[in-house]
Amino acid sequence: MSGEGAAHEEQHESVNGLISAFGKEVAAKLNGPGGEEEALTSPVEGLLRGMAKRQNISAVAYGQTSIKQLSARPDFAIGVGSKIIGHVELKRPGKGVDPTAWQAKSHDRRQWEKIRVLPNLLYTDGEQWALFREGQQIGKTALLTGDLREGNVVPADEQFAQLIAMFLSWAPQQPASLSDLVKRIAGLSRLLRDEVAEQLSREAEEEAQRAFTIVADDWKNLLFPDATPESFADQYAQTVTFALLLAQIEGIDLKTQPLPDVARKLGKRHALMGKALAVLTDDALDDLRGVVGVLVQVISAVDPALFEDETGDAYLHFYEGFLGAYDSKLRQKTGIYYTPSEVVRFMVGFTDAVLRSRLGQSEGLASDEVTIIDPATGTGTFLINIIDRVAKDVESEYGSGIKPSKLRKLADRLIGFEKQTGPYAVAELRISHAFKAHEVGIADNAVRLHVTDTLDDPSLEVRLGFHYEAIAKHRRLANKVKKTENIMVVIGNPPYRAGAKRAGLGRWVVEGNEVGSGPILDQFRAVGSRHRDYVLHNLYIYFWGWATWKAFAESPHDGAHKAPAGIVAFITNAGYLDSQGTAGMRSYLRKAADEGWIIGLSPEGRQSNASTRIFQAMQEEVCIGVFVRHGDPNPDTPAHIRRLDVPPGRREEKFTWLESLGIDGHQDGAEWQDCISEWQAPFQPGAGVAWEAMPTLNLLLPWTTSGNKNNRTWPVAPIQDVLIDRWKRLIKAPKNHKAALMKATDDRTPEKAEPPLPGHEPGSLLPLSEETDQSPKLIRYGRMTFDRQWLIADRRVIDRPRPPLWFVQGPAQVYLSELHTEPGRPGPAVGFTALIPDNHHFKGTQAGRIIPLHRDPHGLQANVTPGLLPAMEQAIGVPITAEDLFAYIAGIAGHAGYSERYKEERTAGGVRVPLTRSPELWQQVTEIGRRVLWLHTYGERYSNPEAGRPQQTPRLPDGIRPLCTAPIGETSHGMPDTIEYDETTHTLTVGSGTIAPVSPEVWDYRIGGVRVVEKWFDFRKREPDVERQTPLNDRNPETWPPEYTTELLSLLNVLGSLVAIEPEQERLLAAVDEGSLISVDDLTTLGVLPVPPSAEKKPVIPRSTGQGH
Fold it and tell me: Fewest CB within a 10 Å sphere: which of 483, 485, 854, 1042?
């Protein structure tokens, strides 16, 4: 044998010797006490140490734990020197090392989904060995053959030695781009968060010493009194990640220096982040050495040049990418949406103009008297734009020589509050870059950025000793700003989160404190509106309260006016503009301010196409609000509020439009419109006299009600089989599981018996806890205008069934729906259905009101104001029935032309009906309205074969009738998750299927601004756009049912038929509007109005048909 062969054989035998010793140790442990995975721990460590020695490497195992319930942690980490180079996860012998073979909900599979992000992960069950890097297997699985339980194993081939060598020789790779960096560290940061959360849980159960709990409590006391264990875990992970990244960018050597030295050097430039890193990686918290060590290694390979660009936006793009990869749901949960720079530039410029023209600050934001704060700084975009604006203005007005001194002064009066350490660190970097870009040197830690909860009580001070001083200092400085510093401008984009009070957020704003400061939110409460106060409990409302308190100092508790002049400029959710629950907020803004400007940014309405949204991930309507007080308060005179909305279009078109908008109006000639001046009125322009003279729907059809409110989403589905399946699972579930499964509420629990719904069999229903009948009562349900779904018609799972609504259901009934409190949006102003309507029937979201045609199930008692029909017959000269009046309303308001014609008048919401005096126009509008009602009810109402309205689902003529040209959902792809439209071929593509021809007008048909076809599909796609409240929501079709296709074709035929008659409806509306009308005054003179209170009352339900709320 050659020398080379002998050396190779000697090496092979050495590996065999190590494996032989490993096998014998495993066999001995398997025959002793303890679990099978535990039996592998010491032998695997010894084997890896032995293999490492063959490479002249000294390996150490860290983080061994015997608590196998931990789902976020491998068994141990392997260190070489002071560096963590990989992790090892053990499985019981025979388990295998293929994660895809484990069941989706098993512990092993869930653990794999978390730890797969690790860059060097070795899986073994003692017999099989596999190496994974960031979820991808490297090389083949290595095998040890023989009988492990007998201690006789040998490597099958050289693959084992090669695989272990690759594992032990891992070194971090330099990220090639920012997206590559995001990919490498976001998952590790998420894993670190999960480990901290699990560690806190262990400590709470007294399974471990309280090291993390103590740090979490200190963190809470120092910075965030409202912090939960989950939020601390998130803060921990982001703080450590971004502190390490800051250190690397600042040139601090992570490869060779221990973390205490890194933290100390970082603290010289970034005091809070440096001290936070020191505290959060203290030796007492050594239990996380594995993940933190790998994170250090990965970040140490980052080239700081990745972040070098002229704008400094690289930091911003990195963080937004990081947040999406780290936790895509975190943004939605926290309500954080970062503002596009184009919008920020507009708001900064507009605020500058208000300072100059209204507050006498000739230098605008550059004035030394103007102190500015962004109370939700995020990554610093508003502050950076202010720096750039001031730099540009100073240089233009005075020359570049004075710019450095003016910007240094600006740094002292520019303040930012941010609650999250991740964006705070990015903001520090970006703001520093912004000053450097203007060749201005700012001392380290000179920028007035503070990690703090803006809504926290400023009277609370906590001192935990010198060790925490750098962190405590931030809170003290922030509290000083809150308590004593005069702020002239509050600007920014506060977070949106409903249910803030329930989540324990902003308690000082809501409750005040014990030292005499009453609740700030009280100034937004309207007298007698307690039942609507829940609307105020949204973070963005809390921030409006804080901002107006700070800028205007209009505290109703001490009467002090420390800062008589100020500006609040926010981009927020638009709900406060017209919601009934925010009437008190509007009243306060009118009292506290002298002027205000509202710029609506969502003319398309809620849940519009993402391409039109300013914040593409946010479906709510948004607006910009700018309010200014000139000097001493003038609470007896309402502020002069103006409004001008951007035209509908893509977000880029809106950005361009904003560039030309100023205090005096828009360069295209569009002028600001004066809003109604009544104290609590919506921030909407006032309507004209002619509009006010038209009667509202409730003056004609007096009984109105809310729709059926299930208060749970699972009892509704587009197909019956799904509801049968869900009901069976609920009935068969153990009694102690039923409350969570059904989503129990105060009104409905498994133990509570309920009477049947009106119109159903009399008697009492058993409590669900005792129910055995697995056949639910199902009815067709009006989920949304044009969308027929199915409902479990069982009072035990419907919180607010509105019994009168069910009582009047009958073969002649038709329900009208409208959003009477919302401004008009593209599409018909009213919707109709023959089915029990949902509370959100009009457009699928947002509750409106329902107006039935009849007050009884037989169609004998019309829901019409007493005396109205005879009065109209006398005025018009033709016989008129309740059905005719309903049809007239459908003909007048049931098309997009109505919303467009009265767009400006309908800014305050609601439908008014122009009642013609012309008998010819009355009959024409009524006849076309009958067709509208026939179409809305899919041929179930107002049928008349002689008039072309057969009692069947409407169909378009051959040639233009849409047909399914390729099957939907019958391929291997299963349920579709996308729907697209090709305008050139008039083809609708649903997953892999197609339907044609579909006109552009049908595809874009909207109601309340919502595209009907898209919304219809959203309820039926692979992951339905329905809130998941319980596991019952997960039971949906696995393939596209043929019933979906036929229903979609029916919908397209109905919409196509409506599109065809809209031009005639628009012509008739114009003729009516320009002719002689019956006004509210006329009806009052005739004695029809005011409506008798008895006509507005809900019908009395006979006892035999059911009672209830």
Answer: 483
